[in-house]
Amino acid sequence: MDLETEFQKSVRMFNNMDRSLKEEIFYYVYGLYKQSLFGDNLANRPYWFNFRSLNKWKSWKREYGKTKDEAKLDYINALFKSI
């Protein structure tokens, strides 16, 4: 299978997973997902009191500079390691 097919399969698997993932794994995978779809995070930083949005923003920002294909591959690997 090609990378895009594996990525889409992993996204479906993540969406069907029990939401009992550790919080740090969830945010890590979220950042990779956003990087793989949109590239570098250029969005404004959310306010500090909006914790969930800020954590998502930070997770995506950590992946800055990664290509979309690198992010997809890391996303796939992260999901299979967390199972």
Summarize the structure in words.
This protein has 83 residues and is mainly alpha-helical. The chain has a single domain, classed as Up-down Bundle (Acyl-CoA Binding Protein), CATH 1.20.80. Helix content is 67%, strand content 0%. It has helices spanning 3-16, 23-38, 51-61, 68-82. The radius of gyration is 13 Å and the shape is globular. The model has no long low-confidence stretch (mean pLDDT 91).
Record keyword descriptors for this entry.
about 80 residues, Acyl-CoA Binding Protein, about 0% strand, globular
> What's the main sheet like?
none
N-to-C terminal Cα separation, in Å? 21 Å
Low-confidence stretches: none
Question: What general form does the structure show?
Answer: globular
Describe the structure in brief.
With 83 residues, this protein is mostly helical. It is 67% helix and 0% strand. The longest helix has 16 residues.
Topology:
Blueprint: H1 3-16, H2 23-38, H3 51-61, H4 68-82
Helix pairs in contact: 1-4, 2-3, 2-4
